[in-house]
Automatic annotation (TrEMBL):
One of its GO terms (molecular function) is protein kinase inhibitor activity. The keyword Isomerase does not apply. Keywords: Protein kinase inhibitor. This is YbhB/YbcL family Raf kinase inhibitor-like protein. The keyword Cell division does not apply. It comes from the Bacteria. PANTHER family: PEBP (PHOSPHATIDYLETHANOLAMINE-BINDING PROTEIN) FAMILY PROTEIN, UNCHARACTERIZED PROTEIN YBCL-RELATED. Coiled coil: none annotated. It comes from Rhodoplanes tepidamans.
Length: 174
């Protein structure tokens, strides 16, 4: 576990996001890729990877998770998953929690306009894309935000309520 040194050491370890399924900048499994018969680049099972976090900032009441491909759509980006309203008592999500059936997650809109996880579908002519998972600790009550927010709406709604964030990168390509 990484810890701070110097004056910040009194604050304890960093807020961290990890996955038992891949290391930071590691490869996502094929099952984590998107599933869409209409798109030949979607070769997976659309299963969200398990995530775990630790050492949240003081005052955290809820979390938001974003999965974004900044290289997608030729650099315009692709939102693959927005999950928020996750109670501060929760410290992990199991594999597949992004399918909409996991209690305690409010879904925002992904690239397809859905409130669920949609896995990577990078073009076969590209190298692996970098999928950035970000967890944001907030001082908002878990039920403070309405379902179906877009990423800009979610970030605006969190605004000054953000307490801190941690990230993790998973790569996927053909």
């Amino acid at each position: 576990m990484t810890t701070l040194s110097g004056p910040a050491a009194a604050q304890g370890p960093f807020f961290q996001l990890s996955s038992p399924a891949f290391t930071d900048n590691g490869l996502l499994a094929k099952k984590n890729a998107g599933k869409n018969p209409a798109n030949p680049n979607c070769v997976g099972e659309n299963v969200s990877p398990p995530l775990a976090w630790s050492n949240p900032p003081a005052g955290t009441r809820s979390y938001a998770i974003l999965m974004h491909d900044q290289e997608g759509r030729n650099g315009l980006g692709v939102v693959h998953w927005l999950a928020y309203g996750i109670d501060a008592a929760v410290t992990s999500l199991p594999e597949g929690a992004g399918d909409g059936s996991f209690k305690g997650i409010t879904g925002g809109k992904n690239i397809l306009g859905q409130g669920t996880y949609f896995g990577p579908c990078p073009p076969k002519t590209h190298g692996p894309h970098h999928y950035v998972f970000t967890i944001i600790a907030t001082d908002l009550a878990p039920d403070a935000l309405q379902p179906g927010l877009t990423m800009p709406q979610l970030l605006e709604a969190i605004g000054t309520h953000a307490k801190g964030a941690a990230g993790l990168i998973g790569r996927f390509g053909h």
